[in-house]
Every structure is written in C-alpha cells, then in structure tokens.
Amino acid sequence: MEKINGSLLSDYPFSNAEKVADLLYYDEPILSHYTFKGKNFLHYLIDFDDDLSRYLIFQIQEYELYKLLYGIKSLRTILEQSSKDFMFQYIADFNFFNNTNISYQITLDVIQEKYLPNDDSIFQLADIKNEYYNSLKFIYQETYYIEQLRKKAYYLKFEPNNNHYDSSLGILELSNLLNLVSESFRNFTRIDFYKSFKDKITNKTKLNQLYNRLKEYTDSRAVEFNYGSFEVGISIDKVLKKGVADSKEIQYWLEDVEEKFKENVLEVNYEDEEQINSIIQENNYTQSELVEIYKPILKIAQDSEHTFEYKGSKEKDFKKIKTNNKIVIEKLTKKDMLDNVDEPEKLQEFEYINVIIPKEIGKTMTSKIKLENTLFNITNNFVLNNDNFSQYGFKYDYIIEIQVNLSSKEKQSILNATYDNIEFNVVGNMDNLKELSKSLVLKIAEYIANRDEA
Amino acid sequence: MTLCYNNEISSIESCPLSNDNSNITLYRLIKNHITCEEDLEPKAINPRNRHLKHICEAWGISTYKDANMAIANYKGMNSVLRSRFSHLASVSVDISFGIKYQSGENSHHYSLFPFVDENIISKFTTVSKL
C-alpha cells in the first residue's frame, strides 16, 4: 500500500466510536456508519494487503447521511461536502490480527484519487434495517424541512407608501431592502461571534478560521413569501446544519444567534432611547459596531418611500420598525459619536521623537515634512487592521490585526509581518512608508485570497 | 453432503447458524467472465483476516438476493476495491447447493456456504458486465 501524505497521529482518535450499521457489505464491511461523541462518521474501506486494512474515516452531517441512504447524493459528493464542513479527514491502517493501527490526519485534496469513491457511487440503501434511518426519511422529507424552518421564521414586510403600482415592489428596490437586512444580520453575527469567543479562543488565526467556517451556517433562508405588499419569512437553517459545530458552546451560539438578532435589532423600539442604551451597555458595543449593525436597518426605517414591518412568528401581528428619535438615530448611525460623548476628554500628552528623513544627496531640505514619509526611530512597529485593507478594496468579514515591524538597513526600509504563521517582508526606499505599507497589504491580501479560495 | 472448508467450519460451534430452505436466486460479484473458484473464496482465507478464522460468518460468502443491491455495493467501492470484480453472476440456490441465510443489516444480504461440488462453477451464470 502507498505511503500516506498526512499528519501521523499518536493514537487512533475514534477508539470509542459506536457502530450503527454496515451500509455496504461485501464479504466484509465496505462502508460503515459510526457515531462518536454524538456525531456521525463514515468508515470507508479503501485498500488492503496481506496484513492491513486501510480505512478513510470522515465526519458527515445528519442530512448528508439521509441523502446518502436514500440515493439523493453520491458517496463521492458526500465526502467532498464533508471536506467543506469539517477541516480534516482521517486514514487508519488496521492490523486486526495484532490489534494495532497507524492513523493519519489528512485533508481530502492530498488523498490519492484511487482511494476516493467514483462519481457513480450513488445507490439506495433503504433496505437497511434500522429505526434511526427510517426516522431520517420522516425528518428530512421536503415538507417537514420547510415546516421546521417556518416554525422558527421571523417575517418582514415592505410596503411602498406610494400606491402607484398597487403596493407592489420593484425587484431592484426589493433586493436593496433585503440586502440591508442581510447586511445588518451578517455584521451582527460577526460581531457577536468575536465577542462571544475571542476570550475563549485566543489564537486569532484559529478564531478567524472557525468564523469563516461557521458563517456559511448563519446564512438565512427565505421560507415563505406573500405578495401585494411584499412579505418574506426568514429563518436560519437549524435542521440541516444540526451538529456542524465542534463544541456544544459553538453549536449553541449557532442556534441562538438569530434569536439574539431578533431581540437586539428587529424587536427594538427605536423611539425608546433607554432601551437602546441598555442594549449598547449589555453588549458592550463600540460605536463602529453599532453603525455596522443598526445603520442598514435604520436606513429602511427612515426611508419615506416604504413602510417596514416585522413580526417574530407567523401567528403574531406585524409591528412597524420606524423612528423619529434624532438622538437614537445619531447614536446608531454616526461614527465616533459615542467616543465623543462617553469618553472623558484626554489631557494632551507629548512625547518627543527622533525622525529620520530621507534627503537626496546634493539637495537642500524643504521646511515642510510629511510625517507619513518618515521613519520614526522609536515608533518601530504598528498594526495593520481591516481599515488598512479596505482602503485598497479588500474587505473581510473577520477581524484582521497584524503586527508590523519596521526596520531599516542600508538606506532601505524593511516591513516585516507574520500572519497565519507565515512571514511577509517588503523592502523599499526609505522615503515613502505609505507605498511600502501598501505593498505589504497587497502581498498579504493576495495570500488571504488564495487561502480563502482554497 | 460436505460443506466447502468443512474442517474449519466444523470446529466452530453452531456453524452455519441456520438454513433458509427456500429455492432462491442469489447474486455475487465475480472477477472473470467465466466464474473461477477464487470468486467463491470466503474472507477467512485472506491472511489479513486470520483473526476471524474462529468466526462462523467469515467462512460464508456474501451474496444478494437483489441484483441491484449487489451492484450498489460495487458502485460504492473505490477503484482499488472494484478492480477485484468485473461481472455480476447469479446462482440458483436450493438445499442441494449449500446452506444460506439472511445476515447483516441489509435484508437482501445472504451468507452462503456451498457444498463441495466439482461442477459448482457451471452452476453460476454471468448476468452482466460491471
């Protein structure tokens, strides 16, 4: 058998896994379903020799298991989906005679093609005797799924104030309105995620990777429509995405974040300054976070051309989301407002710095010096954040904070940064730090683009 | 009549477990167009399965009473495992052919323990190319 190009593990990670059923069996189990810590895994026989049986082991979501059992998706597609949902797959070589094994953590892209199921690996396994598999059919049949989402859905209603088109909305204006709600929700989930986990997961790279993986699952689905004025029922998919999180805490967050958004954004009385203050205090929102979450919603609420209404469930009555409270509007939509109001005025403090200025040999100095074109010999590091990247058109849903070290050597400036454990260096003329910073930003942005695409 | 691998099987208590006396057609994946004896070897013969020599099931061979289910198993295999098979064959199994009984979670799966028979190969019919 061929060498495995993965990380060797000291122990087999699933030694306490419980077998549910052999899904494919031909003289021996070919594909078996196991559960481990309440999660679903497939064990797939991929090779053997006179001593060893080699298995590919991968986690799948319950909905994927349903699709495999009922011939909706091929085993190949299920495995590919697993590699999107879960960071690693595993290969284990078992010597059952000696009761030993060697296990590897691996990613799908480095597994040899011959070890993967073929594209035609689609089959019906409905004849497998198992109560649990029967129940999946009931749970995931089409109407059950949509009904479950509808139970948890909240409803938005947009009505044009001008009756020129019998209360109907143009596709473009509707898409703009929904985009604003979606923008607010996206920002809310991102901010809430980092607030909830930044102290628990201190490794920023891991935190960012986790958020990038989870954000797909916070994507809301439109589950019901009504026309005339436009009504839409919206819900996060809690049925299919059940069990995707690595820990109970993260799973709980995923299940709860939509409720939090409803409570903190859609159910708010925007005329009530006290309620707004208590939300801000409770969540410890910064001014820029407030703007990211509330500005899109207030843009609709203040729009004189539409009435914007919300209800928490199908049975409830719609309530208008609107405000004329200028203080609230200012507080939630103007950047730096809180900083000015809440923070005590700082005393002016001075420190004295030495400045190195490039001067072309033979030319005289001008009296005006642009500070951004200088190198400070005591300020030898700074931080690149999301603002620095967005300045050049790179916007990310996660927080970026990269420490940059500045040094100089033989009339050259060197910027050095480490991101994702990768070192980035740019070297250039000492006379334009801004250009040099831009080069560093572009270099890191190129790396992020390649990483995120992968 | 004597079962194939009778020496090994007789040393295992209550093996084979039971017998379905009906006459049914069973399907098995085979390597060659004309079935050879290798296609009828139980997994206990394979050195990596020597730990199973005392397990009754390891001396039976997998067959399916539904051709589609046998094909589904083939379709689920990767190219390494598929390379062991090329055709689907059928065999009509009555009490004179051997012992058979439904086994495992799939209701179409049968464990088959053939009797020693010089003409066993001729009793298999190739159904289709895989």
Instruction: Kindly report how far apart the N and C termini of chain A lie.
Output: 28 Å
Q: What order do the helices and strands of chain B follow? A: HEEHHEEEE
CA radius of gyration of chain B is 14 Å
Shape of chain B: globular
Q: What is the terminal-to-terminal distance of chain B?
A: 34 Å
Strand and helix layout:
The complex is a heterodimer of chains A (454) and B (130).
Chain A: E1 7-9, E2 18-25, E3 29-36, E4 39-48, E5 53-60, H1 62-69, H2 75-85, E6 89-95, E7 100-106, H3 131-140, H4 142-152, E8 154-160, H5 171-197, H6 204-214, E9 220-226, E10 230-236, H7 248-266, H8 273-283, H9 287-301, E11 306-311, E12 319-320, H10 326-333, H11 337-342, E13 355-356, E14 375-376, E15 381-385, H12 386-390, E16 401-409, E17 412-419, E18 422-429, H13 433-453
Antiparallel strand pairs in A: 1-7, 2-3, 3-4, 4-5, 5-6, 6-7, 8-10, 8-11, 9-10, 11-12, 13-14, 15-16, 16-17, 17-18
Helix pairs in contact in A: 1-3, 5-7, 5-9, 9-10
Chain B: H1 6-10, E1 24-30, E2 61-64, H2 67-76, H3 79-82, E3 87-93, E4 98-102, E5 109-114, E6 124-129
Antiparallel strand pairs in B: 1-3, 2-5, 3-6, 4-5
Task: Label this structure with key terms.
heterodimer, A: 454 residues, alpha+beta, seven-stranded antiparallel β-sheet, five-stranded antiparallel β-sheet, 13 helices, B: 130 residues, ADP-ribosylation fold, three-stranded antiparallel β-sheet, 3 helices, globular
